[in-house]
């Protein structure tokens, strides 16, 4: 009997301990940020580098009205309870307005409401626009051990609803913060406008589509500004680097002296994307010219739709001649 009572008490203790552990675990936030045990706060310098050059992206490269450029950056540090945008999911109204028009008010309101309702947001950060396709902009951001994720968007200008960005990048690695991280960025379609080219007029996507990555073969349409069927993958159109700001012995931030200088011209190895010549269909044959009862000639023509670049396939002959019998001879 005593043995049975001992077993009963032991089981009761184990069961109570198990319930306590499960109850504690259920109170933890869900997601990648739940295991962050690093110091509470960390500051980073974030540097956005535009690599959208005419050499890397020669097709329909915008030279005026407006020329190739980048909008301001809008970002947030947050927990896994919040998502600014996600691939293969529908863009919010705020992301739609930002991707289509560069307007940030609705997106800012969405972020603030998420922070107030579920306390999923630690801070908002922004960086100035870049007035050309190649250049740099930078700012600082702060992450928290309960909000170690970083998301941001930068609009591609001009474009229908295209942008680059990062979705929920975790800067915490267990018990420490990452010292430095760089990510190559590729274009995304917000799924709210159906334009194919940089300068396409507004044409709302109804019903709205999900956010998708734009590749060298998708959308699979020759008119698409990023359509390069001979490539396996697009070169990065931008890059972002985040560097942890170190503290001195007094706890004050130490400037990171090796940051690239802000400039509209970035000295970097530039990908040369070959662009083949594109020509129109042949016209119909012209009139047969020549002397009666002798073989004459007739001509058809075509014209250049897209000039070649970066050692792409040169243009073929634009006119063709063939023999014919002159008509209406007496």
From TrEMBL:
Subcellular location: Secreted, Extracellular space, Extracellular matrix
Domain annotation Spondin: ranges: 32-222
GO terms of molecular function: metal ion binding
Segment forming the signal sequence: 1-27
UniProt keyword terms in alphabetical order: Calcium, Cell adhesion, Disulfide bond, Extracellular matrix, Glycoprotein, Immunity, Innate immunity, Metal-binding, Secreted, Signal
Main subcellular location of this protein, as a coarse class: secreted
Any Pfam family the entry gives: TSP1_spondin
Entry keyword Glycoprotein: yes
Coiled coil: none
InterPro entries linked to this entry: Spondin/Thrombospondin_T1, Spondin_N, Spondin_N_sf, TSP1_rpt, TSP1_rpt_sf, TSP1_spondin_dom
One GO cellular component, as annotated: extracellular matrix
PANTHER family cross-referenced by the UniProt entry: SPONDIN (PTHR11311), SPONDIN-2 (PTHR11311:SF15)
Binding partners and assembly: Monomer. Interacts with integrin.
Protein's recorded name: Spondin-2
